[in-house]
Every structure is written in C-alpha cells, then in structure tokens.
Amino acid sequence: MHIEIDPIKCEAHGLCAELLPERITLDEWGYPLIDQTPVPAALEDLARRAVNACPTLALRLQASRHADRDTSARRSAERSAAAARSGAGDRPYQLYTQRRRRG
Amino acid sequence: MAGVTVGPSIYWYLTRASGAVALILLTASVVVGIAAIGRLRAPGVPRFMVDGLHRSASLLSLVFLVIHILTSVLDNFAPISLADAVVPFVGAYRPLWLGLGAVAFDLLLALTITSLLRRHLGHTTWRGVHWLAYVCWPVAVVHGFGTGTDVQQTWMMLINVACIVAVLFGVAARVAVGWPANARLRLGMLGVAGAFALGLVIWLPGGPLGKGWARRAGTPSSLLHPAHGGHA
Amino acid sequence: MSLPRLLLGVGGETMSYDRHVDVHGERPSGSGRSAGGGPPPLVAALTRSGLRGRGGASFPLVTKLEAVARAKGNPVVVINGGEGEPMSVKDRMLLESLPHLVLDGAFCLAETLQTSDVVIAIDASFREAGDTMRLALRARPEVGRRGLQPRIVTIPSGYVTGQESAIVNFVNNGIPRPVTQPPRISERGIARRPTLMSNAETLAHVALIARHGADWYREIGPDDEPGSLLVTLSGGVRAPGVYEIEYGSLLGSLIDAADGLAEPARAFLLGGYAGSWVDGPTATTLRLSRTMLRPLRATLGSGIIVALPQSACPVAEVTRVATYMSDQSASQCGPCVNGLASIANTLVELCEGQAGRDAFGDLRRWSELVMGRGACGHPDGAARFVTSALSVFVQEFEDHARHGLCEACERRPVLITPRQQAAVQ
C-alpha cells in the first residue's frame, strides 16, 4: 500500500506531513514529498488519517502493484531525504502556494 | 404533561441553554474553520489540530442543536412541533423567527452530511455546499434574536455580541491575509459582513430589544397572558 | 525503397488528394480480419514494425491502440496537431503540405477501432493548416454521413496545450491545461470515451505501413529502432528546415544535407526545450537513435535539432528558454510553479552576474525537486534542459557568474520563445 498524490489538487496545506512524517515531508515551498516505500501495517491507520485529513482530497491510498515501484520508491526516498537535509530555510524565497485558484 | 403549568418547565430552560451553547459552538466552528482555510497559524497548534477542532466544534454544535430542538418540542408552553424543526415558516409560534432556526438546522445538516461523505462527493461539490456555512451562522444568530427568550438579558447579550464580534473578526482576518488575491470576492464578503452588523444595529433596538416584541414576533396571543410573565 | 518516405513527392504546395493517391497509392482499409482469428492485419503490421510515437514520448503505438481497443465505450481517434515546441515545425509542415498522409493514418486506425469519430486538433497559430485540412476533408471519399465523421478543433497555442490530456480537457471543458492521469485518456478521454491520440507524423507512418507493411518499414534504420523520422534542423546550419532521416544516421550527414554549418557549432540542442545539450566535439560522431543517445542522457524528443553557433551566448539562450518554460507552466502544481520560477530567476541572476554563492547548488536542488511532481512532464523537461546546459556549458556559466553579461548576450536569439504564446493562465 502506498500514498498517491494528485499534484493539481494539492494546495500545500501540510496536514499530511504533520500526521505522517514517516512518509511525508514538505519541500521548501510547502508541497509534500511522498516517500514511495510501501506503508507498513503499523502505519496504515495513520496513513489513512493523513489521507482523510487533506482539505482538498489530493491524497489517495493505493494498493502497490508492480515491482518497478521499487526504483521510483528508492528515488523518491532519496529525494525526500536530500530535501530534508538541504535546509529549506536558507533562502528567503516567497512561498507561492498558488498563483491562482484552479477549479 | 397534563394539567396547567404554573411556570416554565425544565424543557424551556434546557432549550434556551442548549440554544445558547449551540450558537457558541457554531461560532467557534465558523471562526476555526476560517482559520483553517485561511492558513492562519498559531504557534504550537498544528494544522491537523485546527482541522480537528473545526470538525469537533461542528459536530458538538449539531448535538446541542438537536437537544435544543427536542427540548423545545417537548416543552408544552410554546406550540412547537417536530416538523417545525426542519420545515421553516409553517409553525404556530413566531413562524418567521422560528422558521429561521429551521433553515439554520437544515443548512447545518447539509454541511455535516456532505462533510461526512466528502470522499464520495468530491472536493468541488463539497466546497460548493460548504459556502452555505456563511449563510447558516447569520441565520442562526437572527433566529436567536427573534425567538430568544433571553434576548434582553445582559448575559445573553454578551454572548451574542462576543459571537458576532468573533465572526466579524474572522472574516476581516480572512480578507486581509493574502489580499489582494480574489479581491472582488473578499470585498463582497466584507460588504455582506458589514451589512449584517449594520442591519443588526438598526433592527435590534426597535425590534427584539424593544417593547412588545413577543407580540410583534408572532407569539400566539393565548401565550401573552401577563400572568405567565417572564417572557418578553 | 529508402528515403524519402513521408516526404516523397512533397513540393511547395499542399499535395492534393489525387496527387497523393498517385504518389502513394490508394489507402488500404484499416479493418478486416486475418485468417486464424489473429489481430487485424494493420495491428499485426504495426506490432511487427515497432512504430513508436513521434510526439516526443516515443511510446509504442500498438500499446496505445490495444489499450483503447480494450476499454469500454466507442473510441475516438485524435490527430495531435498541437506542436508546442517552438523549434519544431515538422507537424505544421505535415498538416499544411501532406494532410492526406496524416488523414490516411487516422482513418485506418478509426476503421481498426470501428469508430467514425476523428478529431483533428490543430494549433491556433497554424493559420494555413486549418483551411488546408478543411479543403482536404472535402476531397476524401470516406468522409460523410454514412462514413467517417471528422471534425477540426483549434487548440490555443502554448507549450503545454498540445499535451494529450490538455487537448482532451480543452475539447471536453474548454480548458487547455493538462489533468492528472490516471485515468489515462485511452480509457476516458474525449466525452469520457476511450481516446487514441497520436502525433501527426506517427499517423503519417501508419499510412505508409498500412500500404507497404512492417518489413518495408524495417528496411532502414537499426533493428532495435527501425524506420525514418522527421527532424526539424535549425540554428547555425545553412539550410534549416524539416528533413527526413533514418534512425541511427550520423548527425554529421544530416548537417551535410543541410549545406553544412555557417559557423562552427558550440553545442547541439536535441529534443527541444524538454531535451538536452550535447557539446560540439561529441556531436561530430553522434548517431541519431535512442540507444546511441542514451549514454549521453539525450533523446531526440520530437525530432528537434538546433545547432548553437559559436557566436551565440549559451547562458543567455538557456536563461531565456528557462524563463519561457516557467511562464508556460499551466500553474496548477506547486512544485512546477515554484520550481521553474526559482530556476528561471536564479538563471537571470547568474546571467547578470548577480547570483548568490549557492546558485549552482540551488539550481541542481530545484531541478531534482521538480522531477515527477507535476501532473504532466513539463517540469521534468525544463529541469532536464537546464541541468544538461549546466553540465555542458560549465565555463560559460562560471564566466557569467563572475563577470555578468557578455557581448553575445545581446545578439538575436537562436532559440525562439514566442511571446504571442501567452502564458497558459
């Protein structure tokens, strides 16, 4: 089981990262970086809660399908770790949460 | 309960109290809801807690609203039936002002049910209905002023003023933060909020806070006997 | 039969229907059963040919076709004539000069899928193509109330408006912006029906495979990447334009066919603004095929090849394109909006010598951060373009970081960033 995001619906509210920091961190603009390694049974309830908490319903829980999930899982895990290390606070870039509402 | 009542029953007290509490909780729900969507942050309060508080306040408000409705029906003093709770403006007792309460209740039901079924309805539908929260709250306030037994009591007035000020403040904060995005919508909301406040200021002194309101509001004349007293 | 294939008989004017039949022969039917209950002959031929899409993604056509055939509902065939890349003109050329070749491919596939609905999506900036297509349709015997029912849809110009889900979104809702997939358009596309959308050039190849078969298609090009493709060659060559080449051919031969370089090339851009750079010396031995380009982390994309002359400033060119790509974002996904804007702003600062100490690190971090996090591939492409530029033009970027604008920054741009393609907002 893993978490899928609809990037168009996401508006960087950030509740997901608060509820499931084991799998979701926020990039420097407040958007979620989702670790694609499968959600273990112990975290399933929290994952469900994180998915339901999203104000714009941008998250979905999906049963894992292929073995090639692993490469993208590894890649996203590396990226998340790198992003978490890189220190989002250094540069004072404006947080563009959205330029315009999308329907 | 048969026989002649010699004074207000326990239900009458309960309905007034639960009404006031429901209004306070509804106000809290609206203000926290505005804080949630407006991404207004408080130190040490995570977003999911704000969201959780909003949901809890809304559900609790609904619970107290149900108590408020049931106790008003059970009370024998005013002729309020269960149908009057959901069908507005057809009752015998202060039809307009009580009817507004039914409107607020119907709206709160719609808000709650669509929120519980959010995942199935989709975000767009849910959001469209949720805008009705901005209708539900003022209608509830006006219902309170129009039917409220305790309107002229100081403590009730304080509660009402606090609730109104809280929501006005919330709307102002929502308009200010992120201005000038969606400028026309924000100005519209500000205008509506201001008009509401102004309307109350104009209406209240000569209305519910004035003399003879019970009769003017549509209390059945049989209930206006001064011997029963205690009612405005 | 070798080259030209698609460009056989092409002249200055639109090839009329009669001339088209003269040059290529009648269009075979796309339907029909094969003996023994296998797939329809055209599908078998397309499978054996290994034909891949020419719109940039290089997706095997048969996979798309089978997905649409499997899906529930009456399919729709769409000709994607939305050529968003400013440095590509091959699709425009096909629609304006060889419309019947493209229509043949679409009509064959419509018959294979047993549908009469064909949508021809044409970029609004292709002024002639719309009229040419209307005239061409009138000449077609298959079109009519009892037969195929094509319609032309003009889509707004823009970098992402030609993306397949953006076209479907535009036809369905009037909004020319990509949507999140799944569900894929092969399952639910135009009017929620299974949609087979194919690049105009891909359909032109289908038209010829239907006539001559898979073996013919595989006669040229390497075994793992057979056939021919159209490339748009521009920049410092003496005769820029659309050329038809076989896969695996030498870039050098193509440049010779274009009368050579007017001045030495600093580097080559392959694949357009979502593609990547190859430096001049490496390019001299370059073969144009996926397998040959992969080690260099390059792709042909939709067949775009730009020779960047020595006299051009790569930093200015890359900065301009990065700004364009940021403006062209559909602005629906936070990482794309923020990432591409941050990248573009920092590149401008770098170009002017005003960048902070960590500028290069920031650019690398943001490029990594936007990958795969949009609803479409736009941020990935822009990030790839910038990352490869940073590694090919190391010295030029360092010089700009230290000294700011150079003389070459002011010269006329090689890479076009159309301003009239208003940002998709």
Q: Which labels suit this protein?
A:
heterotrimer; A: 103 residues; alpha+beta; two-stranded antiparallel sheet; two-stranded antiparallel ribbon; 4 strands; globular; C: 425 residues; alpha/beta; five-stranded mixed sheet; four-stranded parallel sheet; 16 helices; 9 strands; disordered C terminus
Cα radius of gyration of chain A in angstroms: 14 Å
Shape of chain A: globular
What is the string of helix and strand elements of chain C? HHHEHHEHEHEHEEHEEHHEHHHHH
Distance between the termini of chain C: 48 Å
Strand tally of chain A: 4
Explain what this protein looks like in three dimensions.
The complex is a heterotrimer of chains A (103), B (232) and C (425). Chain A has 103 residues and is α+β, with helices and mostly antiparallel strands. In chain A, 31% of the residues lie in helices and 14% in strands. Chain A is built from 3 helices and 4 strands, in the order βαββαβα. Chain A has helices at residues 15-19, 44-53, 69-85; strands at 2-5, 24-26, 32-34, 59-62. Chain A is globular. The model of chain B is unreliable at 227-232 (pLDDT under 50). Chain C contains 16 helices and 9 strands. A 5-stranded mixed sheet of chain C has the order 6-5-9-7-8. In chain C, helix 6 links the parallel strand 2 (117-123) and strand 3 (149-155). Mean pLDDT of chain C is 93; it is low at 420-425. At the A-C interface, helix 3 of A face helix 13 and helix 14 of C.
Give a brief description:
The complex is a heterotrimer of chains A (103), B (232) and C (425). With 103 residues, chain A is α+β, with helices and mostly antiparallel strands. Chain A is built from 3 helices and 4 strands.
Helix and strand layout, with pairings?
The complex is a heterotrimer of chains A (103), B (232) and C (425).
Chain A (H helix, E strand, L loop, with lengths): L1 E4 L9 H5 L4 E3 L5 E3 L9 H10 L5 E4 L6 H17 L18
Antiparallel strand pairs in A: 1-4, 2-3
Chain B lengths: L9 H28 L9 H28 L8 H4 L8 H22 L1 H4 L1 H8 L2 H15 L6 H23 L6 H24 L6 H5 L15
Helix pairs in contact in B: 1-2, 1-7, 1-8, 2-4, 4-6, 4-7, 8-9
Chain C lengths: L16 H8 L16 H9 L11 H10 L5 E6 L8 H8 L1 H14 L4 E7 L3 H12 L10 E7 L8 H10 L21 E5 H18 L10 E8 L5 E6 L4 H7 L7 E6 L5 E4 H4 L6 H4 L10 E6 L4 H14 L6 H18 L7 H12 L7 H15 L1 H10 L22
Parallel strand pairs in C: 1-2, 1-4, 2-3, 5-9
Antiparallel strand pairs in C: 5-6, 7-8, 7-9
